[in-house]
Amino acid sequence: MSQHVAITAPKAPQTTQWKKWLSLDNRYMPPVFITLILLVGQLSFGILESYERTLLAICTSIATEMIMGRIFLGKWLNMASAYITGISVGILVRSPAFWPYAVAAALAITSKYVIRCRGRHLFNPSNFGISLVLFLLPASAAMLSIQWGNNMASMVVIWVLGSVIVWRLRRFHISFTYVISFLVLAIVRSWIIHEPWLSEVSPITGPEYQLFIFFMITDPKTTVRSKKGQCIVVFFVALLEMFFRFDQSIYAELYALFWVGPIAMLIEMWRDSRHAASRSIEAPALPTVSGSSPQTLP
């Protein structure tokens, strides 16, 4: 008598799901990392104006994303990006009032849907919202600055974790190029204005720069596609930032990205359209016979 043996597929190891969630390629790792920055800064130095203001920025960002997603795309979107935008606003904006946090978060998310070209949004959302609030409402809002105290132990932990994350996301070259450009241009600034080099370098150890280096300039949606182009763009961000610093702008890095980022995106779109037009002109037309299908060229 023959016997039938049931063959079942081997069960996947129970650790597979855990590895998936702990993988640095997971879309939720950046939100986890930025939350870590918030907790380290707040528990160690009390960098936040208040938890309530930061929560307001996060909730406003998520609510705006949900509304805009339904209106413009007709679907509910993943909220990881909106959370990063909201918590960035909550960390970086300083104001005794609540409304600047809501305004900055709402402006940031709205810009993704309103200021677009060829299906892409041009501005980094958090950079856009924060820059507008700082520029237009200087009497009501400022940016996080010396509250962290430039504590190097905390900075080293964040640098290591941030570098690992952006490296795994294949965007480490962007952060690295910006940092090297900033350090070299700090030498230039020091030589021109006759200030100690360390005083020109010190801003990059502040908490606002960690968000800028690891989140704003590496945003996949608002950076050009080629690796070489990405490196060129962040160099020009650092270069324009240097000139803003000559003008004593304390928000130099934000304003530099505000201008350079969208211009780079528009230039890339223009070049893409030129290449597409040239390819269409160069493509040979297939000869046709009246009443028949096109003939294949030899």
Portion in beta strands: under 5%
Largest sheet: 2 strands, antiparallel
The whole-angstrom Rg is 24 Å
In DSSP terms, counting alpha (H) and pi (I) runs of 4 or more, how many helices? 12
- Mean pLDDT over the residues: 83
Silhouette: globular
Structural class: mainly alpha
Strand arrangement across the biggest beta sheet: 1-4
What keyword list fits this structure?
two-stranded antiparallel sheet, 298 residues, mainly alpha, 12 helices, disordered C terminus, single chain
Description:
The relative contact order is 0.10. The chain has a two-stranded antiparallel ribbon. The protein has a two-stranded antiparallel ribbon with strand order 2-3. The chain is mostly helical and 298 residues long. The protein has one domain. The model is unreliable at 1-9, 21-25 and 292-298 (pLDDT under 50). Helix 3 (51-73) runs antiparallel to helix 4 and helix 8 (172-193) packs parallel to helix 11 (227-246). The protein is globular and about 60 Å long. 65% of the residues lie in helices and 3% in strands.
